[in-house]
Amino acid sequence: MGFNVAAMLTTFVTLLVAELGDKTQVATLALSARGSSTRCFLGSVLGFTLANLLVIPAGVFIYGYFQPRAATPLAGVIFIVAGAVMLAKRGEVEESCGKDGFLSTFSTIFFLELGDKTNLAALAVATSTGALLEVVMGVILAAAILMGMATSLGTLLKRRVPAHRVRRAAGAVFIALGLLLILDAFL
Predict the structure, then answer these.
(1) How many CA atoms lie within 13 A of 96 on its CB side?
(2) Which domain does 129 fall in, by range?
(3) 171 belongs to a structural domain
(4) Distances (CA, A) of 110 to 24, 45, 92
(5) Which of 181, 110, 148 is nearest to 20 (CA)?
(6) 147 with 28: CB under 8 angstroms?
(7) CA nearest 32: which of 108, 84, 92?
(8) Neighbours of 159 (CB within 10 A)
(9) Position 46 in a domain
(10) Is residue 133 included in any domain, yes or no?
(11) 3-state SS of the chain?
């Protein structure tokens, strides 16, 4: 059996469409607008990829016992708290993707992706094709493109907009995302 290009492309396109403009991309944009683009890019790509890769081999078992919507309100509260902290800070802006930025970006994106629609999409393609390597490659390619776009835009914002305004906007975006996640869980 040869390389299943269709499975890789299906995974790539499905994840790209599902995540374009989604909370993960917005969070990456906000984080990269405040710190090191390289650390944010690498942390977000690895977090996105690992969260989605966990679901592929273990997905069938987890899917049968885990309700993805159960984690949504908690993720919303975490976003609201993070946004409130950003808005409450005064004075000099720390770089959220500075020394520890890789780890903070990785963990933020990783936990945002757990139970997300991309987990179910990766699970569905892997289950329907049995092409694990190709699905993994599609996930990695989608992560690199999506997080590259978000990091590039965040870096552009960082260069053109004063840091305190970026922090306020990021805080407001995080609070809005949190509220949307909570509403989504109950609608």
Answers:
(1) 31
(2) 5-69+97-160
(3) no
(4) 9, 9, 28
(5) 148
(6) yes
(7) 108
(8) 8
(9) yes
(10) yes
(11) CCCCHHHHHHHHHHHHHHHCCCHHHHHHHHHHCCCCHHHHHHHHHHHHHHHHHHHHHHHHHHHHHCCHHHHHHHHHHHHHHHHHHHHHCCCCCCCCCCCCHHHHHHHHHHHHHCCCHHHHHHHHHHHHHCCHHHHHHHHHHHHHHHHHHHHHHHHHHHHHCCHHHHHHHHHHHHHHHHHHHHHHHHC
- Exposure string of 54-76, with b = 16+ CB inside 10 Å and e = fewer, is bbbeebeebbeeeeeeebbbebb
Place of tokens 């993805």: 68
Number of domains the chain contains: 1
The verdict on residue 134 lying in a domain is yes
More confident residue, 95 or 170: 170
| pTM greater than 0.85 (yes/no) | no
How many Cα atoms within 13 Å fall on the side-chain side of residue 13?
Answer: 6
Q: How confident is the model at residue 143 (pLDDT cuts 50, 70, 90)?
A: very high
Q: Which of 58, 32, 57, 53 is nearest to 141 (CA)?
A: 53
